[in-house]
Amino acid sequence: MIAGCGAGFDATTNQPYAPNEAQVLIEKGAYGTRGIHIPQAFILGPDPGAQLAWRGSAPIYLNILNKSDTPDTLQTITAGGMGEVKVTAPIQLPVGQLVNTGKPTPQIMLESIPKSLRGGESIKLDLQFAKAGVVSMNVPVVTRSREYQDYPPAPNATPA
């Protein structure tokens, strides 16, 4: 018996994938909207086999590129019912410059998380920019393993 399946050259399964891409922002092959591009976004969860405790905290890492004609500012972030997001200060986004919100230390924290997180979840974030307005995306919670193992541990992580 021989079986086959075809989906064409532009099928989702033929596209590049990394678990930390801000997938909701993909519009016609671009990681962004209204001049704001976010090619990488993740929430750093616990070590493998552990969990972030109820009411715990986790750093949010974003790489943001302002491709518009004028500077912009990331002012606030909300996470719906998944906790409070603290931005240490408005994040300036110069034109054409990639800004990493996690270096040298995380500037954005998800706090008072209403349930335990183990990694693999996604949390919807609404980012408020001064000029671009609100940009919404689902951001994955990743465990502190592989390429994320050198990041500092998430606060309040406990064994599962």
TrEMBL record:
InterPro entries: LpqE-like, PCuAC_sf. It holds the Pfam family PCuAC. It comes from the Bacteria. This is Copper chaperone PCu(A)C. It comes from Nonomuraea diastatica.
